[in-house]
Structures are given as C-alpha cells and as structure tokens.
Amino acid sequence: MSTTGSRAAALVPAFTAPDVRVTRSRRSTVWVAAVAVVLVAVLAYLPYLVYSGTTSLLVNVFILMIMASMWNLLAGYAGLVSVGQQGFVGIGAYAVVVFAQHGVDVFVALPLAMLVSGIVGIPVWWLLRRLRTAYFAIASWVVASVLAAIVTSISSLGSGTGISLLPYLNFSATLLGAITYWAALTVLVAALAAGYLLLRGRGGLVLTAVRDDEIAARSAGGRVGRVQRLVFVVAAIGCGGAGALLAISQIFVQGSNVFNVSWSAEMIFATIIGGIGSIEGPIIGAIIYYVIYETLGNYGTWYFIVLGVIAMAVAIWARRGLWGLVADRFNIRIFPVGYYLWPRADMVPAASVPPGPVPGTPVPPPAAPAASPSPAGEELGADGG
Amino acid sequence: MTALLELDRITKRFGSVVVADGLSLAVGAGDIVGIVGPNGAGKTSLFGLIGGDLAPNSGEVRLEGRPVTRLDASARCRLGIGRTYQVPRPFVDMTVFENVLMAAQQGGGQRRRLSYARAAAVLERTGLGNDANVPAGRLGLLSRKRLEMARALATAPRLLLLDEVAGGLTDPEVAELVTIVTSVRDEGVAVLWIEHVLRALTASVPRLICLAGGSFIGDGAPAEVLAEPAVREVFLGTEVTTSLAGLAGEAAREDA
Ligand SMILES: Nc1ncnc2c1ncn2[C@@H]1O[C@H](COP(=O)(O)OP(=O)(O)OP(=O)(O)O)[C@@H](O)[C@H]1O
Ligand SMILES: [Mg+2]
Question: Is the same domain home to A278 and A343?
C-alpha cells in the first residue's frame, strides 16, 4: 500500500523499540505435542484391538467432534451464530452419493465432497455476510432448508425417501468399518489442525478479537470480513466432511436425516458444555455428549431432561464450559495460540521496578535469562507470526 | 495543501435526533483540536462518522483529499485513523499485549518482530508495561483507558481520535495523559480530543471546537470559544459553568 511508508515515518516511537522476546505460550508445549502424536497413533491402531462396535461408536464421536469444532470456530471466534450447518452436512453426504454414482470410490469421494461443500459455502457466505446474531442464525437456517429442498427434489438422489450407498461399496464389512474409522480420524485431525493453524496464524488475533468485540476489532484495523469468510468456508468444508462420513458410515443417505437441524443442536450443545471459544472445548463436549447418550439414551425423556439441565447449568455457572473451568483452575492450554511477552527487567528504570510480582501478572520461571535456551521451546524469531 | 481530515457537510440522524447537522471541518496534519459540548451533543457520534462506525445520511469524509465515506472502520484505520472509545472496549479474553499486538499487525500493518516491538513499545509508553500478560478483562477503568490509547497508538495513526480518555482520572493521572498526548502530537500525529475535563483540554490545545445539537457553535482559541455567549449558553445550568468561567479567565490571562 502506498501510504505505508509515510505512516511509518509519521509515528516514530518515542523511545527505540526494546529488544522484545515473545513466545506462543509461557511454558513449553513440546510434551503436549508428544502426547497428541501418541494419542493419535493409539487411536489409529485401535481397529486391530477392539470390536467394530467400538470403532463405529467412535466414528460417531469423531463426527460430532468435527462438527462442534467447526461450530466453535464460527460462533466462538468469528461471531457467526449459525444454526444452518446441517445444510453443509447434507451437501457433503449427498455429494458422496453423486460421486459414487459416477464411479468414484467413496473414500476418494470424501475429500471431493468436502471440496464441494466448501464451494457451496462461498455463495452462501455472500448471502449471509451482512447479517449478525439472531438474523444470521435464522437466515442460515433458511439457507439450509433451501439447500435441503433443492437436493431432496432430485429424483436420481432418491428424492425424499433416501438412497443407499451399498451398490458402490466393494469392501468386506470389517474392512469397511476399519477404513471408515481411519477416514473419520483423518478428517478429525485435519479439522483440528485447520482450526489450530487458523487461530495460530495472523488471522487468529483478529478472530479472537472478533469473539470479544467485533466493532472494536474493526476500529483497530482488523480485516474482520476476510477472516469471517475464511472461517465460514472452512466450517462448510468441515461440516461437509462430517456429512460425507455420516453417509459412508450409515451406508444410507436420507434428506430428513442429513439435513436435520438436530445436527446443529448437537454441535451447539457439545460446544457450549465443553467450552466455547477454545479448541479443546468442543472435543471435551462431544465426549460428554456421547457418555450421556450411551448411559441415558434409552431412557427417552430423562435423556433430554439431563441434557437440558446440563446445558442450563453450564450456561449459568460456567460460561466458558467445562474446559474453561479446568483450564482456569490448573492454568493449562493444550493448544498454544496466544502471545506471551517476556518481562524484561531492563525495560523499566531500576527505581520503578516493583519489589514483588505485580498482582495478576504471571510470574516467569525464576531463571529465565535471555541467553539461556528458551524454556518455552518455540522462541519466535523471524518466522513468528 | 489539502487538509489531513475534511468533513464536508456531514449530516447524521437517528430517527428524529440530529447528531450532525451539515458539519464541515478541516484538520491539518499535526494539528491538535479539542472538542467540547454538553451531554448528547453528538461528540461521540462525530467520531463514529470519522472513524467509520457510523455512515452519514449525507456529506463526505475525506482523508488527505481522498473520500473515505464508503470505507468501513477497518479500512479507515489502516489508512491512518486511530480511535479510542469513551466506554472502553477491550478484547476482554485476550491479554493486554495481544490487544495491542492485534492493532499493530492489522491497523499498523506490522508483521512479526516489528509488530512485537511496536506493541511492547506502545505498552511501555502508555504505562501498561507491567500488565502485558494480564487478560484485559481484569483491568480497572484507568488501565482500560490506557489500553484504549495503546491500541489506537499501535495502529500508527496519522489522526488520533480521543474520546474522553481523561474522564474519571485524578489530576496527576490527567497530567500524565496530557504528556503522552502532547508527545504523540509532537511526532506529527493530528489529534482530535473530546473531553469533559476542560482543564486537561484548555491547557494543551491551541484550537477548541464546541459542538451542541449537532452543530459547531464555536471554533477557535480556547479562551475565545469559552467566552462566546452561545457556548456559555449551552453549558448554562450545568456544573461545568462555574469551572468554565474560571477557565476562560485563566486562559485569557495566559493569552495576554
Ligand atoms: N446508535 C444510536 N442510535 C440512536 N441514537 C443514538 C445512537 N448513538 C447515539 N445516539 C443519540 O445521539 C445523541 C448524541 O449521542 P453522542 O453519544 O454522540 O453524544 P456525546 O456528545 O458523545 O455525549 P456524551 O457527552 O454523553 O458522551 C444522543 O441523544 C444519543 O442518545
Ligand atoms: Mg460521548
């Protein structure tokens, strides 16, 4: 931009910039990464150890985790409260059918279906982009219903009665179950990685700011519309992936199921109880949801009462969900997406250095001279942002 | 030479309330201009119109001769308009450093190390150096006001809009603030400064504007503006009046 030069000249800092030291978290996160890798490896090996009942349950858990993570990016960061994500779930599911009908292997169709869902997301965003809060919510629902109406009117897709994927699956039941499980795990890891990278990148600060105050974020120069569009399309891709996985795992696609608004209800519930506005929250929330479902799912009314009471309790007493409680209590963050500015004693004149730590300021580890190896593991030099 | 900021017959209505009634104004690069006016005069709305939070019903806003009326607040900030909010709007779940870093990267267009350095420098300058890693939601009012200022400064503005940053501060705190604002001005940044604490303003601005009922009813040296009958009229019966009289006298003596 042509004005950048003159602006840089316009505001020369009153004193020369101190040699700052910034890391993405105060503590080392190497062990977290190690645990994550081990966990994914164990999960990947699971089909060799457990019955297919367990893996197919886990497929459902993974699908909800994917959906909830996407909804969390939308509502928990970009300030976009969508109740129309089932539109993309349905698009993803039906896209798999279409590709299969054209001779594409369903597991090749899976990423293609995600792509289709993302492409559909672009014009949908264009329709919704000026709306916020309840208006956005209702409009997103309307759009999802329109998508459902269009797709379920196509006779080659079974219209409303649904269509089976069975003719296109040439696997033994065991193998199909295992591959479906690995596919779900892959999409989940990709969805979490996408969310993490999105929040860790430069747009992450904008997203986090939008979560707190969209107007102030704009006034500070934040390219809010740009990150919101990015998140919306990513969420469309993710929910499309969840829908494609649903289609493959259920071997049957029906409009009233895949386009059902209850998918939005489930992703919202999982995100809220787990903790909105954190990457960890939706993962925890999806697990809790399935624990309740597995223990109380057969009790009908009681099941819904318990869900309702939990949602209300969390909304009243733990605004940032169960993960929020844990994270605050033990001061842990699994995904380091923040910025920690290391205090430098020599940045302040000696006389004004307070005798003790300032209340509320995290105290750095006792020995943290600048020369020692970075305790946070990932010092930010030239490639930080 | 074109002025840095020009308002050209800006009109803004909220229903039947007219908050800007054909306002025209020119502010040169490096100018510092105080704005006073009774409650509900439309001062904050004026900043909304300049900063891009509000769209006018008619009229044009120009920055260095370039119309920016159709640009949103984000684009205007990146062109060099930095603002603070009268009621602070910190990003509560981000740390103070992250608040300012976001502004340095987005509004200020700095990346990586440069953005860290600018954010850290701005925090030092605004006295927030020790609160860098504190969630902004835990700050008290004084620190929130400082943070408003820090975030605006981090965007490297050429025009800084200050909306009652001194409100609710003690005299030494106001003095500290005035020092910061004057040093910013000395670097060539133009400042528009709304304040109810007249003492802070009259001491540090060569030009004062009085806004009432959506119109400018006074524009000039503080002493002259405060002495004008129309200005005294709108403040009549408010607690400001007495201090106004005193300040006008003081300012007149200083001018003499
Ligand atoms: N978004 C809005 N919608 C409707 N009316 C508004 C809006 N914003 C401001 N107003 C009205 O416009 C008028 C001017 O408000 P504004 O905040 O600009 O005044 P102000 O001069 O900043 O007052 P104060 O000294 O109290 O800060 C007030 O009557 C206010 O109620
Ligand atoms: Mg105001």
Answer: no
Among chain B residues, CA nearest to A227: B106
How many folded domains does chain A comprise?
Answer: 2
State the CATH number of the domain containing residue A44: 1.10.3470
Of A205, A221, A340, the CB nearest to B77: A221
List the structure tokens of B73: 């607040």
Query: Is the pLDDT score of A13 beyond 50?
Result: no
Check CB contact of A212 with chain B, cutoff 8 Å: yes
Q: What is the torsional sign of CA A209, A213, A218, A219?
A: negative
Q: What is the mean pLDDT of chain A?
A: 85
Lowest mean per-residue pLDDT among A289-293, A336-340, B106-110: A336-340
The confidence score (pLDDT) of residue B245 equals 53
Token pair of A228, please?
């919101």
Q: Is B86 in the pocket of ligand 1 (CB under 6 A)?
A: yes
Of the listed ranges A12-16, B11-15, B144-148, the one predicted with least confidence: A12-16
Q: Give ranges for CATH 3.40.50.300 in chain B.
A: 5-80+158-255
Q: Is residue A180 within 8 Å of residue A249, measured between CB atoms?
A: yes
* Chain A with chain B: Cβ pairs closer than 8 A: 186
The closest ligand to the CA of B46 turns out to be 1
Q: How far apart are CA A281 and CA A322, in angstroms?
A: 7
Q: Are residues A163 and A279 in the same domain?
A: yes
**Residue A364 sits in which domain range?**
4-21+339-381
Its ipTM equals: 0.90
| pLDDT above 60: residue A3 | no
> Is the CATH code 3.90.550.10 the one for domain B5-80+158-255?
no
One-letter amino acid identity for B105? Q
Q: Which residue type does A254 have?
A: Q
Shortest CA distance from B75: residue in chain A = A221
CB contact (8 A) between residue B78 and residue A1: yes
Over residues A293-333, the pLDDT tens digits come to 988 878 888 888 888 899 889 988 888 899 988 888 887 77
Q: Does residue B44 have its Cβ closer than 6 Å to ligand 1?
A: yes
Q: Which among B103, B129, B130 is the nearest to A220, CB-wise?
A: B103
User: Are A261 and A176 within one domain?
Assistant: yes
Do residues A343 and A325 share a domain?
Answer: no
Q: What are phi and psi of A196, to 5 degrees?
A: -65, -45
CA distances from B231 to A144, A201, B256 (A): 57, 51, 21
Selecting from A7, A360, A361 the residue whose C-beta is nearest the C-beta of B80 gives: A7
**Whether residues A199 and A50 fall in one domain:** yes
CA distance B71 to A368: 46
